[in-house]
Amino acid sequence: MAQMRGTGGYRLGAQNHFGGQHREGNSEASTLDAIREQTSKIEDILDTYSEPIKPYLPAIGRFLIVVTFLEDALRILTQWSDQLLYLHDYRGFPNGLNHMFLMVNVLTMVACATLVIIRKYSDYAVGGLMGVVVVQAFGYGLIFDLNFFLRNLSVIGGLLMVLSDSWVRKTKAFAGLPQLDEKDRKMYFMLAGRVLLIFLFIGFVYSGEWSVWRILVSILGLVACVMVVVGFKAKFSATLLVVILSVFNLLVNNFWTLHEHHPHKDFAKYDFFQILSIVGGLLLLVNSGPGQFSIDEKKKVY
């Protein structure tokens, strides 16, 4: 980020004594300032109307992040025989091992999701859920499915936001003690979480049928994704992505409108809860901000 500022926005390496490059740098800076001013006004309006639910945003975000794991555990239990048959006949799991695979996944998802919700042992809970993502990718043979891969990268990004949020609270609890290592970890994990969260939208852009509305939403969403990654008005852009993904989820993944035996019902339900998880990660980002590795924080310094 520092390198980009040094060579792109301010042209420090090629100043013109007659003022030409200086005017160009001022023009770029004024454009960013204009965007920042307009988005700040929108953020103020959002802050005003969201004030009643602000104290509950972290809890809502954590619940939404793990809801896909709870739904997955429930689906395994309600489709136990079908799951065993699939693992045995299509994935080559021997009898007994397929039972153990499913049971360990269910217990881990329920236990770790509960710990995330109640904000206990977050480090171990997040590690357990990440392990489930990796194990299921190999167990169900989905490791090379690009859409599955991108979606689960976003889920992992949400889990990293949970981890960062728990470290923020630890730091506040011991505010009088040195917390350099914890602070450094939080910065890196918040950056990684921001980057990974946007992969779901990339998967959305490259899947499905194209239309004028889809192109417009994709462009708007990709701009918001870039803003989230670089941390420029991250709260505003994360809120915009929450709105886009929520509307998309309700309109496209409306599994409750499908017949019980519809072939796409399970896929729509799976997609619906996965998007809820990414929305939860974005809500944590809205609540906590982008962290120190961001343009927003650098602006405060300079």
From TrEMBL:
Repeat as UniProt keyword: no
Keywords: Endoplasmic reticulum, Membrane, Protein transport, Transmembrane, Transmembrane helix, Transport
Top-level taxon of origin: Eukaryota
Bilayer-crossing regions: 97-117, 124-143, 149-168, 188-206, 212-232, 239-258, 270-290
Pfam families reported in the protein's UniProt record: SURF4
Membrane topology of this protein: Multi-pass membrane protein
GO biological process terms held by the UniProt record: Golgi organization; protein transport
InterPro entries tied to this protein: Surf1/Surf4 (IPR045214), Surf4 (IPR002995)
GO cellular component: endoplasmic reticulum membrane; endoplasmic reticulum-Golgi intermediate compartment
Subcellular location field: Endoplasmic reticulum membrane
Family recorded in the similarity comment: Belongs to the SURF4 family.
PANTHER family the UniProt entry points to: SURFEIT LOCUS PROTEIN, SURFEIT LOCUS PROTEIN 4
Name of the featured protein: SURF4 family-domain-containing protein
Originating species: Pseudomassariella vexata
